Amino acid sequence: MSEHTIIVDVETKNGRITVEHVIATTLDKHKIMQVVSHYEVLVNDVVKHESNDPEDIMRALGHYIAGLS
């Protein structure tokens, strides 16, 4: 089960760019439930960048908005 929270949703000349915070629950190797999270940059609903570091996501977002990636 996972929960997606949209942080940024913007329409650019390169398409719709979205940043999401994804929180998911998984079972580890001992079958203990754990909560993990990460950020994703999506361009037209396709994941282009994924990271646990918010600063890394903001850099990637800047590149996609500027059309550099």
Topology:
Blueprint lengths: L1 E11 L2 E13 L5 E11 L2 E6 L2 H13 L3
Antiparallel strand pairs: 1-2, 2-3, 3-4
Quick gist of this model?
The chain is α+β, with helices and mostly antiparallel strands. The chain has one domain (2-66). The chain has one helix and four strands.
Q: Name the structural class.
A: alpha+beta
Distinct helical segment count: 1
Bulk shape: elongated
Radius of gyration: 14 Å
Strand content: over 45%
pLDDT < 50 runs, ≥5 residues: none
- Strand tally, please? 4
What is the terminal separation in angstroms? Answer: 31 Å
Strand order of the largest sheet: 1-2-3-4
Number of domains: 1
Q: How would you sum up the major sheet?
A: 4 strands, antiparallel
Order of helices and strands: EEEEH
Q: For the residues shown, what is the average pLDDT?
A: 91
Q: In percent, how helical is the residue content?
A: 10-25%
Explained architecture:
The protein has 69 residues and is α+β, with helices and mostly antiparallel strands. The chain has one domain (2-66). The protein contains 1 helix and 4 strands. The protein has one helix at 54-66; strands at 2-12, 15-27, 33-43, 46-51. The chain has a 4-stranded antiparallel β-sheet, covered by helices on one side. A hairpin with a 2-residue loop joins strand 3 (33-43) and strand 4 (46-51). The radius of gyration is 14 Å and the shape is elongated. The model has no long low-confidence stretch (mean pLDDT 91).
